[in-house]
Amino acid sequence: MILNAGTLITMDDERTVRSEAHVVVEDGEIAAIEDGYASGADVIDATGEVVIPGLVNCHTHMYALPIRGAPLAASPESFYEALVDIWWNVDEAFTERDAHLSALGSCAEMLQSGVTTFCDNYSGPNTLPGGLDAVAEGVAQTPIRGMITFETTARNSEAQARDGIAENQRFIDEAEDQYDTVSGHYCLHTLFTNTADIVGECVDRATDHDRPIQIHLEEGLVDVHESIAEYGKRPVPALDDMGFFDAEVIAAHCVHSTESEIEILAENDVNVAHNPYSNINNAVGIADVETMQAHEMTIGLGDDGWDPDMFETMRSAVGIHKLKQRNPSGFDMATALEWATIGSAAVLGMDDAVGSIEVGKRGDFVTLDLGPNPVLDGSAPYYVVSAGSSADVTRTIIDGEPVYDQKSGVTGVDDSDMAAVGDASAELWDRL
Fold first, then answer.
1. How many domains does the chain have?
2. For 268-321, what is each residue's pLDDT tens digit?
3. Which ranges of 188-299 would DSSP assign to H, the alpha helix?
């Protein structure tokens, strides 16, 4: 496959932007990037478009899809109330069919919005064991790449938490090899919904398998307050005492992490999944990414299950951090694109393969029609972040193969599939 690009935003180390270039993909891998346009039967023509790397969503919850539009009676006034009154009820109501179809629908939506790689956290205790198989089957019906995990929680009992750890281990040991594009890892919901024993057990399993652990860290103040009450200190030093950072850790949110806690995270090479759109909607606060950047931490972007349009997540990052500083020039828009591509790839430990357009990496691209205005090399990343949306995605390409375009839709997904997704959502509403 050869892709002609009117403007090519590579996101390589130099953040190179090229005009009128073409990319050659052989056996799914980028073999060459050359100036000028190529011709031939295997050429994809994006000469009037902007080409960016496939977007990487480094923290999502596909099981949140069915709740869009749900007639919920709850009106939570805090993040903790939202967990108790909405999300934990959803967890308990989920079936394997829900797990499968929510994954399928979410993957289709992500591909439509230019996401080629994602990391998901699933929670449906009544589907264990085997819940992750249902998720994986939904993912594998599409060509997207996914990291999946069951979200371990001891909110009801330590036995339930151990079931979650066992499900992750079972999937990695027994099921993962069945899928070319799906892999497993580990996850702790939070510190406050687990115990020190469960933290230690999860670390042991993750290090044995050489897999990362994802955790929702200081998303809400309840995490801080419960940690101080239980351990006499805030979550980060408490987790440090437990040996949590002996594992490879992906910390989602970190909204309430202090400067001293961020220093601990940085010293332990913890990667951060930043979820600005979700943090706005949950009204939990604004993560101190400026201090994280000062400590040269790796930061990526996730939608947290709220909206598969990563362009909205990028703009949320720009807006929230400009507003925090009360400075319209206080945040570089290009940073948001970096976080949504090579940054998120690095968070997931996949930046050797995806996240940028470079020779030797996978042929993952998004082509964008941004309208009639000229696209200049110097301002192209800013244009993408400020004006781009999922509606502008003309194609999503994985391993050099078009897997979505506006005319034919998503490979492997048809209207009947999406109708089934909607039907399952409506049935779930009846059970809530």
1. 2
2. 999 999 999 999 999 999 999 999 999 999 999 999 999 889 999 999 999 999
3. 196-209, 221-231, 235-241, 259-267, 276-281, 289-294
